[in-house]
Amino acid sequence: xxxxxxxxxxxxxxxxxxxxxxxxxxxxxxxxxxxxxxxxxxxxxxxxxxxxxxxxxxxxxxxxxxxxxxxxxxxxxxxxxxxxxxxxxxxxxxxxxxxxxxxxxxxxxxxxxxxxxxxxxxxxxxxxxxxxxxxxxxxxxxxxxxxxxxxxxxxxxxxxxxxxxxxxxxxxxxxxxxxxxxxxxxxxxxxxxxxxxxxxxxxxxxxxxxxxxxxxxxxxxxxxxxxxxxxxxxxxxxxxxxxxxxxxxxxxxxxxxxxxxxxxxxxxxxxxxxxxxxxxxxxxxxxxxxxxxxxxxxxxxxxxxxxxxxxxxxxxxxxxxxxxxxxxxxxxxxxxxxxxxxxxxxxxxxxxxxxxxxxxxxxxxxxxxxxxxxxxxxxxxxxxxxxxxxxxx
Amino acid sequence: xxxxxxxxxxxxxxxxxxxxxxxxxxxxxxxxxxxxxxxxxxxxxxxxxxxxxxxxxxxxxxxxxxxxxxxxxxxxxxxxxxxxxxxxxxxxxxxxxxxxxxxxxxxxxxxxxxxxxxxxxxxxxxxxxxxxxxxxxxxxxxxxxxxxxxxxxxxxxxxxxxxxxxxxxxxxxxxxxxxxxxxxxxxxxxxxxxxxxxxxxxxxxxxxxxxxxxxxxxxxxxxxxxxxxxxxxxxxxxxxxxxxxxxxxxxxxxxxxxxxxxxxxxxxxxxxxxxxxxxxxxxxxxxxxxxxxxxxxxxxxxxxxxxxxxxxxxxxxxxxxxxxxxxxxxxxxxxxxxxxxxxxxxxxxxxxxxxxxxxxxxxxxxxxxxxxxxxxxxxxxxxxxxxxxxxxx
Lengths: 393, 393
Prior knowledge:
The structure is a homodimer. Chain A contains twelve helices and 15 strands. Chain A has helices at residues 3-6, 12-19, 40-51, 64-77, 92-103, 119-126, 148-154, 177-190, 253-266, 272-308, 334-345, 372-389; strands spanning 27-28, 86-89, 109-114, 130-135, 137-138, 144-145, 159-165, 193-197, 229-234, 247-250, 313-315, 323-328, 347-348, 350-351, 362-366. Chains A, B: This is Aminotransferase.
């Protein structure tokens, strides 16, 4: 066993979840998925494919019709994307892994904007690369900010890859257009690849320009097809398809052939019946995504207002993604606090330390729920916990 | 782009398949899958899971009931295997990749028995390890043999992993029990991990001992749970589930937790509806696997006899797996030959060079077909090609 693998932290979220094992009354907001199942019509498309016997290997890069559908969907949101720049992957995390395999030699340097979901920084460690962390920092109101100059200073000609996840899991922080432009210009000078995890691009709460679809700023709005840029997407979040393990990426055409080889050597291909559901979900997006956006906005507003009403809680409305990231006065050990909340109060939250030391002292609350009343009930439990544990009242 | 990734060969099989694009009359035997779809009742189990809304994340290591079913199935074939030694993976190739990620630091040495399907040796190259190839060699009748002394000499205390795929794709070569015992004893002395790709364990044509199920010799028959051994299985071949991307591995208990982390960082989990189908397929195995074994044995006998009747063809009946590996006198460039066969004669075979330089001059023919008449028709095309191209007759 390699020491670097032994040293990789296990999931602190899972550790908290285990503390709630055997309790049926836990309100769980710890994982990054909605409690809403995939819509029936999307599932029916996979059912039809299975019934038709589509149980054979598919092309490494995905079904041509799915690559075309992804290209069309992303072109509707950003600058035109050709299907020759698209690869279908067996999840967003797999897209991130094959891209890092393509780009990172052992010893290479990666700069990552943190806190961030742990997979993004574990992958370069697995590949023997060194990760330099540049921290977002919270303001007094709990909104997380990037120091752009600090990030630009950290990215040098020795930086092989800049890893950025915006809208960000866990903080909701979202890159502005001006920041993206500055980073792209800088990375063109240093020869650094930008690996942009944009799986939450449609989960944005800033209002769009008139006539534009609601979508966070993307590097695909400003980059040329041949820029050193790979953008990763997933069907998990905007299409309520976490369990399907379907993702995709947009890369320069010259990289796609090599990514196809790496997909062969990692997972070979995504199941055809899963890909068919993806084609259908994209066709429904003009109807389904705005409805989901509306529901999540309502969840966000309910949850953040209720949390802000609690004494000692700091939380800002997230700009994007689907999490409230909050801090409770005097509580600095997020793992101990999260374990206590699940064990004593049946409230399941993710400890901020799961996202790196920069998140220590914070808690992540997934706000994606069919029923905002569930969120209110969770806040009631936090309030009750505060009364007997935090020593207030 | 890393030079090591640019240098990875693309699929030569795909290159041949492209030469047949636009021809609807090609008899394709190039890919490693049967032309038989997954049985209806297995597909129906996935359909029921989808209809029940099982569209959420699952445990990194797989559903407990699937891990238990795999442990039970393998325990029925080999020495007892506990579910704590089992991980469910998103394909056999993914199981091989995460295991090599766990074991191989950059610069480490791997010994691989070749020719072999290219994924197995591409993975260490991706991870920056060095691959030392030990070649099987064909006898005059076309049966491939291992020089055990040569392999044992090649595995030294510097060898981190021994990669072996038995029954072997493409040659059908199968390790004997005595060879396995010698290798295990030697690797215990050198501290070398054995990574054993046994996805064809049930596709074996040697008759079993009385009262035993038909199964190739496995390292799981002789090893202790804590031996440095990882055995990889797949649902693709014995259960006709290639397109589902479902595999599994058996490893020492102490490794499983770390493999779970690596699964999180590679693909996170296999879809629940796919795993449900896996549980069902294993329950049906006592009926379905012997029937498949019988059909493939008939395919093998038809194909090998017809090929052996052609002048200038060397081929031995494979001991295991689902390929005939053949050589045609005077034909040394397998890629050129395979391209010619598809373009001029509508016969789709895989070039031996796809499996390494040791396979050059040979062709791989997948014998898994619903209909042995299709195999005969293919042999007729090869015979016709021989008459106008090989200058015989």
